[in-house]
Design a protein that fits this description.
7-stranded mixed β-sheet; 22 strands; alpha/beta; Aldehyde Dehydrogenase, Chain A, domain 1; binds adenosine-5'-diphosphate; 15 helices; 6-stranded mixed β-sheet; 24% strand; 2 domains; Aldehyde Dehydrogenase, Chain A, domain 2
Length: 479
């Protein structure tokens, strides 16, 4: 038994209900550690501690909050190799991607350190003479953060940083598969001097810890990233007590390739968007919508480069694609590979692979000859699989791109300004990419989607203030 990693509640490390094993999906013999799994009682303790601590954190003022976030950013950078290695070990992202994600987390903390000082407000003359109206922003209170496994350091960072910057207290529940990054982040926040109760970590199952967070009366706002099914369940339960919600869910992101696209650019964008990070990104390019004239040349080159990708252990410098995150996820991916064939696609790749170690390795896959009505074109797979749909012209491409219950990210590869502009305007998505992969975003601009992909205010950049604050309008008459 390794020394257990505990929950952080009210500034103290507490054991929770039981311990869980954290294992490396690249190498199941690698036991990363034992982590506490909390109970509903732990959530209650954390939420109460947060509610007690929050007014003081707000009263401490923006400089104290900026200073803390800045110290956290510095510590993340200083420990980037350690955190990145943990990320690669527990989630399976290759080490360079894992370190880049860690550095991104530091950038996010640094960005929101600045935003703490720039909390926006307005002062307007009232319609009544002699009266002034001001609009100020205040924290929402205690924010519950429920995060997924696919970006185990960046997503907690982009929720924690704005929450703390704007004077809220936090209860974080990371995904069960990736407690290691969250625990390191909690350690950094604690060591950086975050006051007791201002940040709390409760690890454990969604069905216990997550559910208790949705029900905890002290938690006034919940930010969730994960599956559509869980997002809907949280929305239903949250409606009972009118908790403020921000939900980031799935995608089935279209990438249109027009006849006039630069072939190497289009192939590079699709290879990256569909397969990097093992396709385990909600912004992954999972529907490739390709015009007939370029279709065969594009598919041949993409298939060639896809099959040349080296799949292997996340910590092996030769690997370009790491393992699938878990046995359940791998089984689901393999079911979709079989389904693609059943639905009539020509399948390239997609088989389970043997690696040098026992892990969840899978060859990336293309499903050719698909229609947009097929399940492999409609359902989010969340693995290294892309469905290719051939279309005749731009109008058909845009129509297929928009024919989805999701609307997170949409891309187009074209040399035509006219079509790029028409796509940017016509795409029913929260994010549009031109000659770029659908995945890969900046941190100082909003992130989020339309339709079934997102619900509530946008995350990241200055728009994050919408969710993490509430507005107060005051009128005053000087006499
Ligand atoms: P994924 O398929 O990516 O694992 P989930 O939606 O299952 O997506 O998980 C995302 C996060 O939501 C995880 O932290 C998970 O533990 C949590 N979660 C799962 N079920 C619930 C629930 N009923 N209530 C609250 N949180 C939950």
């Amino acid at each position: 038994m390794t020394t257990p990693h505990l929950n952080l509640i009210d500034g103290r490390w507490l054991p929770g209900d039981h311990l869980t094993e954290n294992r490396n999906p690249s190498d199941l013999s690698d036991l990363i550690g034992h982590y506490a799994a909390g109970s509903a009682a732990d959530v209650a303790l954390a939420a109460e501690a947060a509610a007690r601590a929050q007014p003081g954190w707000w009263a401490a003022g923006p400089q104290a909050r900026a200073d803390l976030l800045d110290r956290v950013a510095t510590a993340i950078d200083a420990r980037a190799t350690e955190i990145g290695t943990m990320l690669a070990r527990e989630e399976g992202k290759i080490l360079p991607e894992a370190i880049a994600e860690t550095r991104r987390a530091a950038q996010i903390f640094r960005f929101f350190a600045g935003e703490a000082l720039r909390l926006p407000g307005e002062a307007l003359p009232s319609v009544r003479p002699g009266v002034e109206a001001t609009v100020t922003r205040e924290p929402v209170g205690v924010v519950g953060l429920i995060t997924p496994w696919n970006f185990p350091i960046a997503i907690p960072a982009w929720k924690i940083a704005p929450a703390l910057a704007f004077g809220n207290a936090v209860v974080l529940k990371p995904a069960e598969l990736v407690p290691g990054c969250a625990h390191l982040l909690a350690t950094i926040l604690h060591e950086a001097g975050c006051p007791p109760g201002v940040f709390n970590l409760v690890m454990g199952p969604g069905s216990v810890v997550g559910r208790a967070m949705v029900e905890a009366p002290q938690i006034t706002a919940l930010s969730f990233t994960g599956s559509v099914a869980t997002g809907r369940a949280i929305a239903r339960a949250g409606a009972e007590r009118m908790v403020k919600l921000q939900l980031e869910m799935g995608g089935k992101n279209p990438m249109v390739v027009l006849d006039d696209a630069d072939l190497p650019t289009a192939v590079a964008a699709c290879l990256n968007g569909a397969f990097f990070s093992t396709g385990q990104r909600c912004t992954a390019s999972s529907r490739l919508i390709v015009q007939a004239g370029i279709h065969d040349a594009f598919v041949a080159e993409l298939a060639r480069q896809m099959q040349a990708l080296r799949v292997g252990p996340a910590l092996d410098p030769a690997s370009q694609i790491g393992p699938v995150v878990s046995a359940a996820q791998l089984a689901g991916n393999l079911d979709y590979v079989a389904l693609a064939a059943t639905e009539g696609c020509e399948v390239i790749g997609g088989a389970r692979l043997n690696g040098p170690t026992e892990g969840f390795f899978q060859a990336p896959a293309l499903f050719l000859g698909a229609t947009n009505a097929m399940r492999v074109a409609r359902e989010e797979i969340f693995g290294p699989c892309a469905t290719v749909i051939k279309v005749d012209d731009f109008d058909a491409a845009l129509a297929v791109a928009n024919d989805s219950e999701f609307g997170l990210s949409a891309g187009i590869c074209t040399a035509s300004l006219k079509h790029a502009t028409a796509f940017r305007r016509g795409a029913k998505a929260g994010m549009v990419m031109v000659n770029l992969p659908t995945a890969g975003v900046d941190y100082h601009v909003p992130f989020g989607g339309t339709k079934g992909s997102s619900h509530g205010a946008r995350e990241q950049g200055r728009h994050a203030v919408e969710f993490y604050t509430t507005v107060k309008t005051a009128y005053s008459f000087a006499g």
